[in-house]
Write a structure and sequence with these properties.
By secondary structure, the chain is an alpha+beta fold. It has five helices and three strands. The chain has a domain of 55 residues: Multidrug-efflux Transporter Regulator, Chain: A, Domain 2. The protein is rod-shaped and about 70 Å long.
Amino acid sequence: MDNASHKELLTPTQAARLKGVSRQWIANLIRQGKLEAVKIAGRNFVRQSEVLNYKAAPKPGRPPKVKVAATTKQATKRAAKKGGKK
């Protein structure tokens, strides 16, 4: 491996900080084969480009509900109801 590729190698901790996730999450991705690791002196390293390009698959199941803003007509009705009660 040349010097340029050594500079691109990250420890799982560095990869986790870069991605904004836990070190264990990176370790699980390596174990599952979703991130390719290089072992040097018994330690795992991952390529920075691979970490940056990794995109997690969407979670299975029903997608979350999207909140829709109330129309001005609905908001006006609500305000009128609140104002009328004392």
